[in-house]
Amino acid sequence: MNARISSLSIFAILVPVTLTATAQAEGPLTGWGANDYGKTTVPSGTFTTMAAGEKHSLAIRGDGTLTGWGSNSSGQIDTPSGVFTAVAGGYLHSLAIRIDGSLVGFGYNKYGQANVPPGTFTAVAAGDFHSLAIRSDGKLAGWGRNDYGQSTVPIGTPEFPATFTAVAGGGLHSLAIRSDGTLVGWGSNSAGQINVPSGTFTAVSAGAYHSLAIRSNGTLVGWGSNSDGQINVPSGTFTAIAGGYYHGLAIRSDGTLVGWGYNHVGQINVPTGTFTAVASGGYHGLAIRSDTDSDGAPDVSDNCPMVANTDQLDVDNDGVGDVCDNCPTIVNANQSNLDGDAFGDACDQWPFDPTNTKVDGQCIPTLSEWGMVVMAALMLAAGAVIVPLRRVGTTVSPLDG
């Protein structure tokens, strides 16, 4: 472990967020991997996006406010007030975009990496000690440490200025996706980490000495150092990606997570369930769980995933939350409802008669009633006309009127 820790560190990029975009998916956080300083001990609540630094973590809550946890050795989690749309974590510094598009930086600032430029921005990324952002007009800005040219961004020509849709910061290198979907890399190339592949891409991330990207067809590609299998990317299609020091994380098209590469502290031992966003620090990971109904309970453990059920009440303990249980006081785990009348069979007075909207006091039909139901079904099959019945006390008689 110690032999691998150096000043070269990498943090996950943030997928670009335009200021006019619709609301991002919101859900609870989960964290795994190294937990020194409590950086994977995530706060409660629901979040829209997050970022991981070397020993700290950051996230934007559903109301747009920013929170941070983990190490605060340089003020990197002294989050400012206000409403934000994107966030990034560097080695010891942090960056965020306010709702009005302006940038804010805080934490370690030896190289000026927290001295943000003026203007409005749509995406932001943090490398080791350098920072990157995409302006509202699509042009790149870079600042902070620049000994390998990692913050000297491509600008194109006056006639054909370069514009971009995504950006990532690595240890001493940087990557971006042009508006036409092609990749560009600059800065240190000690392991081939800026020898970008051809083709078009939708997302990009940078590790200490390696790089990762999602192609337009959803498949992954990796290049640069492969000391720990960090560019041996899995097959399949993906929607999000994040690079750590010597590992990678990604969300598959079905929402599940996968990790590969170096694993000395469990940084690729991803949790089960489905997720909407992922970020990676040096040796830890963060992800936002799917929460379709935005009630704070992830779909994987929500007893009513399509209807808000904040308190997760389930009176009959059948695994189905009361707000969507068609028999909330009688166990009906499979929610069977043969006549489609909104009353589950377990508590429906007449489970084959959708016109009967009353729940039976006994809840479970007697054997004689089930016999009549079977007989009625046979008679219907033979073409007979059945007169609807109701139960009076313990006897069965024709409906009044």
Task: Find the count of extended strands (DSSP E, 2+ residues).
Answer: 23
Q: Reading side by side through the largest sheet, how are the strands ordered?
A: 1-21-20
| Spans of at least 5 consecutive residues with low confidence | 1-23, 389-401
CATH class categorisation of the largest domain:
Mainly Beta
Shape: elongated
Q: If helices are DSSP runs of H or I spanning 4 or more residues, what is the number of helices?
A: 1
* Residues in helix, %: under 10%
What are the secondary-structure elements, in order, as H or E?
EEEEEEEEEEEEEEEEEEEEEHEE
Main β sheet profile:
3 strands, antiparallel
The name of the CATH topology of the largest domain is Methylamine Dehydrogenase, Chain H
Computed structural class: mainly beta
Strand content: 25-35%
Radius of gyration: 28 Å
CATH architecture of the largest domain: 7 Propeller
Mean pLDDT: 86
**Count of the separate structural domains:** 2
CATH superfamily of the largest domain: Regulator of chromosome condensation 1/beta-lactamase-inhibitor protein II
Distance between the termini: 83 Å
